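Cross-check.
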Amino acid sequence: ISADLFFLLRTFTKRIGRTDLSLLVADRGVAASEAADDPIRMAAAKWNLGHILLAQGEADGAEEVALKAIEDLQRDTSGEDLDAIGMGGALWLVSAVAAVRNNDPWTARDRLREKALPAARATGDTNVMWTVFGPTNVGLHAVSVEMEMGEAGEALRLADDVDISGSPSLERKTTFALEVARCYEQRRDDPGVFLHLVNAETSGPEDMRYNTLARDLVHGLLKRARPTYARQVRALAERIDLLT
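Predicted model, tokenized:
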């Protein structure tokens, strides 16, 4: 119970912009999961830690944590345990994001194709330890990798094949919409940016107030929006407290 509570707190503190507290909570989560002697929870705690390290720009640390957690999980669980397969797949996703942020996109793509995708096919869309791991989430991360590398055209092509409507995670729906919006910004397509910001607000209005990418995208639109939709952009900025 303690470990699970720390997982929840890690997410909450990150969402409100307190990455310092989120790192502290993630570390406490690791300790709690080790005390529980639960291999799945230990892997999930490292997944949580990897995410906050990514948020703090510590891609090297996130990659090291994820790869070591995968090694430990494979040692301590059965190869037929679907929860372990799913948790391992979620950790491969963390390692893929870390690789692309270390300017190694081919390693990121290889990890998605050769590690995460086979695991997702074995488990199907699942939600082991609230990771929302499965084929849909692997598809979302493929879009993320291309977006991170500035390959907006490829990211949008991949996004067309992702059906996010059935995902149980509002956070993933919001993040997907924001990353697609970022792709449109890279292509200087401001109406596309605005459309997907509205989609992001629909699924995650609270996230929009704290998410750095969301606020940056709206701030940019405020400067560039054409008169035909400038009023709507300003209204969005007001709703997320960007003008206060």
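The two ends are 39 Å apart (CA to CA). The CA atoms of residues 90 and 180 lie 21 Å apart. Passed to J.P. for a second look.
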